[in-house]
Amino acid sequence: MNTDSEQVFNEYVTAMVGGQLFGLPIRRVQDVFLPDRLTKVPLASPEIGGLINLRGRIVTLVDLAYRLGLSRRSETSMAIGVELAGESYGLLIDSVGEVMNLDAAALERNPINLDPRLAAVSSGIYRLEEQLLLVLDVDRVLAIDTSAAAA
């Protein structure tokens, strides 16, 4: 049996933030929603967009544009629901795209000239016809670095 011809695909939910296309591994995405009735958290890090009650769970919203040093392109935000260590988070994005099945062999390492803030949360890139898709490492995105705020 020849296994060389078998392709392995990775599935990503795509999202736009500040004009950049990102892919989140579909196995990490719980839902996509429009956050409403947002409660701001006094004295929270600026990247914390607030809290919402989503189907009986308290969800911490993380402003992905602020976290990655990008400018927001949309007035209304959407959120992608993820979970880490039993806690629910919503990653605020400009818009959600489609689910893409991409060949795992086409995943490339981050370019050396990639912005360090993006490189810190990216597990690689795909070169698409029109643009680059940065694959987000959800664990690294949610590792809010409190030491950076003190610097």
Query: Domains counted in the coordinates: how many?
Result: 1
Secondary-structure arrangement, i.e. CATH architecture: Beta Barrel
User: What is the count of helical runs?
Assistant: 4
Strand content: over 45%
The poorly predicted ranges are: 146-151
User: N- to C-terminal separation?
Assistant: 57 Å
Q: Given the C-alpha coordinates, what overall shape results?
A: globular
- Please, what is the oligomeric state? single chain
Q: Percent helix among the residues?
A: 10-25%
What is the CATH superfamily? CheA-289, Domain 4
Number of strands: 10
Blueprint (SSEs and pairs):
Blueprint: E1 9-17, E2 20-25, E3 29-33, E4 48-54, E5 57-63, H1 64-68, E6 78-84, E7 87-93, E8 95-103, H2 116-119, E9 122-127, E10 132-136, H3 138-141, H4 146-150
Parallel strand pairs: 2-10, 5-7
Antiparallel strand pairs: 1-2, 1-8, 3-6, 4-5, 6-7, 9-10
